[in-house]
């Protein structure tokens, strides 16, 4: 088999990168049949088989917006996890400050931007071999022996076990084979980059096959910490996956899978980016506070890649599980059962004040998750009718033990400055050692009946309705105990409870004890309807309407306070989202199927959008969920791919996304309007003007009409590859040169858009060149070839001081890769 890594892109109303299907083993006999039918009409053999609709079919036949990226293209372009995948799929947005605080959105929708809470659902589902991964931390792990990734855009509730409102990422790994095969790959590069991958597959008997795959990645960090004298934000990944396939006859497949991955990097630190003016008095803003303590950051230029964080950093992360998938062909249909258990252990350490001062000396919220899922599906296919009907059950528990502690610089930083040496602000012991210890758990259960029908009214016209009935129940517990430096529990009520002592006003202004036990449940009935029409042999038009939902949420990280300093228990639960989605699209194949051009337009409106509200304090309530009245995302996506010859391929993809808060009247204020005294009753908030420092500022702002965070209006990706047949060192093969790149326009990195958290647009360009032949591929690569300076994420430091910290993107990296297969 000649190893293929030609980048073929742009199919199915989104980018598609692939090599010829005849170079890979199809995942199932149905896929072989689909490929044979399409290849009969397309002798080039550039056929992409997808399972997005729970059956094998060619991508151009799927009447929905989907991106398909094959495993060899992922490797060639260096996009080794979902976070990096957004460089290939323009409508995918992935932002991460650490594995837990990761946002995976499609078209600007999915999860609230900001601090992550366990109490809400993901809007973009991540599936690996049909198993739903409930926590988005899975997005930060390396792809492990992946065959292809399908990115589905728009609500996915009538074909997938777990309902998702924005889309799904369907990852398919390479399966065990009854022909012996193997592969190995080694990459090295600058920044001490090392990556090794290997996989082996073959028969154990006439009816049993096995596959084993391992991968390891390490790289020096990209940010230098002058305090610890170490490079931080490194990569340190290890993963292993094993599979057993039992095939007693042609009608039955039983696949047992197990996987384990771990990360243990010194991560995830930030660097100083800028300072903005807030509503605090000038002597309580960042520059004055830093000067009062003689503090100077190592650099005010973030691209010097220097920081001085003084707290321990860690992003210890373990994820894994086992599953059993049974596929049984029963006459005209297939019965599938997927049983799975997965775990996720998270052991973080953070520097929450983003400075080299000991303001917050400890900040960590380790958690342990167990999830169980069971899905049954029956797929029926006939000449006129196809349908999928399924049952899904899901159970999850997450336990978290949080600790946040004030340091020796906290009092002078957080309390009102005074020249009196006896003032509490000038006595480090006022806050030093003050500790908030949080104990919490979440229990979540979900069950669903779902199905979708495809009725071929004529050879050209197909009607496709779908239904879903869903039940969710969530219950949680949260307790915060506050202790002073002597370990005594403090109370912030006028009459301290037994076993506690009265806290000072300064201590209670930072941490307050709290107990809550939110619980709720909800039924939801949703549906979608798709009409698709084959205008000609190679032109498919489609239109879709979906009424979807995101189920209720609960606030699992503590509740906000009312104006009178009492706990707002009304905020314990968050209403479900109500989603209306419209989409039209056109899929075409041109020039004797040497090229594809696909275009889609969409409009999604969400009532009671679940948004993140970030508190300005260090520890009382860092962030919680609330409902924005209405959100709308609309846009156009276009994709083009051409296979001009066996020598040259190219693709170009573009997306325009206009995502806004249509109505959000009780949003958190941006930093330029935060930090002053409470807004007097009846005085409106002027969002557009920063106001006068020290003047009254609102507790909430009306940000209706503002853009959703994390979304670029314009996004592009492109790539091309050219090869020449040659003979080198008595080896026949191809010398090739490839280029790929992407562009994203500016976007905002705060839940309430701020002038201080505007991230400039940027364009990245990557090159690769190599020689490949029968069973081998050796190539060199350069990523971010022009060493573009760009920001991946900005964060508003707590305390309303105006400090903006951030994570800078990777600099230019280069290296080489050697691959062997047999």
Automatic annotation (TrEMBL):
Q: Where is this region: Disordered?
A: 670-700
**Compartments in which it is found:** Cell outer membrane
Q: May I ask which residue range the UniProt record assigns to the signal sequence? A: 1-23
What keyword terms does UniProt attach to this protein? Cell outer membrane, Ion transport, Iron, Iron transport, Membrane, Receptor, Signal, TonB box, Transmembrane, Transmembrane beta strand, Transport
Q: Where is the TonB-dependent receptor plug domain?
A: 59-168
Matching PROSITE patterns, A to Z? TONB_DEPENDENT_REC_3 (PS52016)
The TonB-dependent receptor-like beta-barrel domain covers which part of the protein?
Answer: 278-784
Matching Gene3D superfamilies: TonB-dependent receptor, beta-barrel domain
Describe its membrane topology.
Multi-pass membrane protein
Q: InterPro entries, per this entry? A: Beta-barrel_TonB, Beta-barrel_TonB_sf, Plug_dom, TonB-dep_rcpt-like
- List the PANTHER family: FERRICHROME IRON RECEPTOR-RELATED (PTHR32552), TONB-DEPENDENT OUTER MEMBRANE RECEPTOR (PTHR32552:SF81)
Of which family is this protein a member?
Belongs to the TonB-dependent receptor family.
Tell me the protein's name.
TonB-dependent receptor
């Amino acid at each position: 088999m000649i190893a293929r890594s030609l980048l073929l892109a742009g199919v199915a109303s989104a980018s598609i990168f692939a090599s010829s299907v005849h170079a890979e083993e199809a995942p199932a006999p149905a896929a072989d049949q689909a490929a044979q039918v399409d290849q009969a009409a397309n002798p080039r053999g550039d056929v992409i088989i997808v399972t997005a609709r729970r059956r094998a079919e060619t991508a151009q036949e799927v009447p929905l917006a989907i991106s398909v990226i094959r495993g060899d293209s992922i490797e060639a372009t260096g996009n080794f996890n979902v976070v990096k995948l957004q460089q290939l799929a323009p409508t995918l947005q992935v932002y991460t400050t650490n594995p837990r605080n990761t946002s995976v959105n499609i078209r600007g929708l999915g999860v609230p931007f900001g601090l992550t809470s366990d109490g809400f659902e993901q809007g973009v589902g991540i599936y690996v071999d049909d198993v739903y991964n409930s926590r988005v931390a899975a997005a930060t792990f390396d792809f492990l022996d992946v065959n292809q990734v399908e990115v589905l855009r728009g609500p996915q509730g009538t074909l997938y076990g777990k309902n998702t409102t924005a889309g799904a990422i369907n990852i398919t790994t390479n399966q065990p084979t009854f022909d012996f095969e193997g592969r190995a790959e080694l990459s090295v590069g600058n920044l001490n980059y090392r990556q090794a991958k290997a996989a082996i597959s073959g028969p154990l008997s006439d009816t049993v096959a096995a596959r084993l795959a391992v991968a390891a990645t390490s790289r020096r960090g990209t940010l230098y910490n002058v305090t610890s004298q170490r490079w931080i934000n490194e990569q340190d990944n290890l993963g292993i996956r094993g599979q057993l396939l039992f095939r007693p006859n042609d009608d039955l497949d039983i696949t047992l899978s197990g996987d384990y991955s771990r990360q243990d990097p010194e991560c995830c630190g930030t660097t100083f980016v800028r300072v903005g003016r807030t509503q605090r008095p000038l002597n309580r803003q960042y520059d004055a506070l830093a000067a009062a303590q003689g503090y100077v950051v190592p650099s005010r230029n973030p691209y010097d890649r220097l920081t001085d964080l003084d707290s321990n950093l860690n992003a210890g992360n373990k994820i894994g599980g086992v599953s059993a998938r049974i596929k049984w062909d029963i006459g005209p249909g297939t019965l599938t059962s997927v049983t799975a258990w997965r775990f996720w252990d998270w052991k973080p350490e953070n520097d929450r004040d983003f400075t080299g001062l000991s303001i917050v000396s400890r900040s960590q919220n380790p958690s342990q998750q167990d999830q169980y899922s069971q899905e049954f599906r029956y797929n029926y296919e006939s000449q006129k009718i196809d349908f999928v009907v399924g049952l899904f059950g899901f159970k999850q528990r997450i336990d978290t033990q949080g600790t946040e502690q004030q340091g020796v610089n906290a009092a002078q930083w957080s309390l009102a400055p005074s020249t009196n040496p006896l003032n509490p602000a000038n006595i480090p012991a006022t806050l030093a050692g003050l500790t908030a210890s949080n104990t919490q758990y979440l229990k979540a259960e979900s069950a669903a009946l779902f199905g979708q029908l495809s009725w071929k009214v004529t050879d050209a016209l197909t009607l496709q309705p779908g239904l879903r009935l869903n039940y969710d129940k969530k219950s949680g517990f949260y307790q915060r105990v506050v202790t002073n430096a002597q370990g005594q529990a403090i109370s912030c009520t006028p009459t301290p409870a037994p076993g506690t002592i009265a806290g000072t006003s300064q201590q209670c202004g930072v941490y307050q004890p709290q107990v809550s036990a939110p619980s709720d449940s909800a039924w939801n009935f949703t549906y979608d309807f798709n009409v698709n029409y084959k205008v000609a042999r190679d032109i498919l038009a489609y239109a879709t309407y979906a009424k979807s939902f995101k189920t209720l949420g609960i606030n699992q990280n503590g509740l906000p306070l009312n104006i009178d300093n009492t706990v707002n228990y009304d905020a314990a639960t968050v209403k479900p989202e109500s989603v209306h989605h419209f989409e039209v699209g056109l899929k075409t194949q041109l020039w004797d199927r040497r090229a594809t051009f696909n275009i889609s337009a969409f409009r999604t409106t969400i009532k009671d959008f679940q948004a993140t509200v970030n508190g300005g304090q260090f520890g009382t309530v860092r962030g919680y969920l609330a409902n924005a009245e209405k959100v709308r995302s609309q846009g156009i996506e276009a994709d083009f791919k051409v296979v001009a010859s066996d020598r040259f391929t190219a693709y170009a993809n573009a997306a325009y996304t206009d995502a806004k808060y249509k109505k959000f009247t009780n949003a958190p204020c941006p930093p330029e309007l935060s930090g002053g005294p409470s807004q007097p009753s009846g005085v409106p908030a002027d969002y557009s003007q920063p106001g006068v420092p020290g003047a009254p500022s609102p507790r909430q702002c009306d940000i209706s009409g503002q853009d959703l965070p994390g979304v670029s209006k314009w996004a592009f990706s492109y790539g091309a590859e050219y090869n020449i047949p040659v003979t080198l060192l008595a080896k026949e093969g191809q010398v090739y040169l490839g280029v790929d790149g992407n562009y994203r326009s500016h976007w905002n990195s705060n839940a309430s858009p701020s002038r201080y958290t505007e991230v400039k647009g940027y364009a990245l360009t990557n090159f690769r060149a190599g020689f490949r032949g029968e069973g081998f591929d050796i190539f060199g690569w350069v990523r971010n070839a022009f060493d573009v300076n760009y920001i991946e994420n900005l964060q508003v430091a707590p305390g309303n001081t105006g400090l903006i910290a951030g994570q800078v993107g990777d600099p230019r990296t280069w290296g080489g890769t050697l691959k062997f297969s047999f």
